Amino acid sequence: MSRPKSRAAAFQGARGAFSEEAARKLLGQGVEVLPCERFEDVFRSLKEGRAEGAVVPIENTLAGSVHENYDHLLNFELPIVAETSVRIVHNLIARKDVHFPEIKRVFSHPVALNQCLDFFSRNPQIERIPFYDTAGSVKMIVEEGLTDAGAIASSVAAEIYGGRILRKSIESDRQNFTRFFLLRRPEYARRHPVPAGAHVHWKTSLVFSTRNIPGALFRALSAFALRDLNLTKIESRPLRGRPWEYLFYLDFLGRADTPNAKNALNHLREIADILRVLGCYPRGA
Amino acid sequence: MSRPKSRAAAFQGARGAFSEEAARKLLGQGVEVLPCERFEDVFRSLKEGRAEGAVVPIENTLAGSVHENYDHLLNFELPIVAETSVRIVHNLIARKDVHFPEIKRVFSHPVALNQCLDFFSRNPQIERIPFYDTAGSVKMIVEEGLTDAGAIASSVAAEIYGGRILRKSIESDRQNFTRFFLLRRPEYARRHPVPAGAHVHWKTSLVFSTRNIPGALFRALSAFALRDLNLTKIESRPLRGRPWEYLFYLDFLGRADTPNAKNALNHLREIADILRVLGCYPRGA
């Protein structure tokens, strides 16, 4: 008997995607999951109660911030309650009865194929074939019974679809990490507050906008610097169609409900046109 | 007779990729191009003289900054001499004798397919098939003579491979722009300086690092704020393995060789551990 879908964590991608790995890290191995086609569907599933949590990537060490998800955070107003970071490890996976010398072609998402170019240079006999997603390529080769083919995906995908890992960690760059947020509905976050003392380190994420007059950001940051609040992220994003206005993403160390942070946020409100706290959560590993 | 390869502009991707569109915008429609498999190959081609210019994406309005190319900018020390912004327009392209009602399947890079989900929702009879890249999918359907298939790619790809655009601009989000840099070898940039008076607006791009003591960034930005220099980009990037150190990407309006900007850079040097000016170039449209 499966539990009702509303207990599930929504994520974008197929079963076994790296977002599912993040969901398991955040919510435990046994978490029920709700795979969605688009990021917008992930937010909508949580908002409308088809899921109890949502796990979304927010930045990657090679590819940068996922602006689309910042937009959804602003639009859906679903608070961040936790963060985690997942190392993107690409594995060569095949059916359980297939051995490495038999592999003639490898299926995966083109981004994953491109992140394994050193492996393909060392193995020129293997053809690269683009597929819709990493985990889905494992499902396909297993279900179709392909005996000359492999797929590149996470170890979770190998486990879910009954594949075998032939080569671990074949990505060219090991410094490939994605940071994920866990979101809840506002009511849930209010009913289940994490006690302030339970974690030493907290982070608060916020978005604010300023008009780009010289020094506007400088004055905005003074709200934190004057109170010895340490930033862990700052990023500007031009507002399209408003060439002199900017949106800023900012994370600082600390809880938003301490007197010091409250003063900083009040100070920032004097300077910023828009200010939205996206969430306050224990700092991830 | 083609000109020698060393006159070419290198870019990552197949002929007709959006980077080629950027290369044409930056260097004229007739520019000779050198497609490369990886970003690293693009930088190497320029460094080693197989190309005279390199065109690389640096940030996208939905997907964020391309950290990989910032790393290559730091490692290869090839100066930025121009910038441009290209709107990512996805077109449905087919062979010239094929009409829209005949289309049963559409090939493209999964990222492009995913950016056209509204089109596929409106046309559920059409199957989506992942392909290695956008432009390459046009080449394939034309060369293979497929009469029930389309591809999603740039208009440049339709032109290069002799396809016909059946539906223009089928992307769900029109606010999809990529910013590109044009790079040259340092000698070339020195021999062909753009005169200071030729453009009203200049931008300077730089990278610097600070130790993350509270207020370090605030002090770094004071170098610009105290001199009324306007920032157009600021972005932090944690240095992996050094959890308390950060790299910052910063663009400011102005030429690096004016007295005011020189003072700001000298001031910043007092505060930053590393400071590298990546280039100074006329502001793009």
Structure description:
The structure is a homodimer of 285-residue chains. By secondary structure, chain A is of the alpha/beta class. Chain A has three domains: 5-87 and 176-191, Periplasmic binding protein-like II (D-Maltodextrin-Binding Protein, domain 2); 91-167, D-Maltodextrin-Binding Protein, domain 2, CATH 3.40.190; 196-282, ACT domain (Alpha-Beta Plaits), CATH 3.30.70.260. Chain A contains ten helices and 15 strands. The first copy, chain A, has helices at 18-27, 39-47, 67-76, 110-114, 117-122, 134-143, 155-161, 186-191, 216-225, 259-271; strands spanning 9-12, 33-36, 53-60, 64-65, 80-87, 91-94, 105-108, 127-130, 149-153, 164-167, 177-183, 202-211, 231-238, 245-253, 274-282. In chain A, strands 1, 2, 3, 4, 5 and 11 form a six-stranded mixed beta sheet that branches. In chain A, strands 8-7-9-6-10 form a five-stranded mixed beta sheet. In chain A, strand 3 (53-60) and strand 4 (64-65) form a beta hairpin. In chain A, helix 2 runs parallel beside helix 3 and helix 9 (216-225) runs antiparallel to helix 10. The two termini of chain A are 34 Å apart. Chains A and B meet through strand 4, helix 4, helix 9 and strand 13 of A and strand 4, helix 4, helix 9 and strand 13 of B.
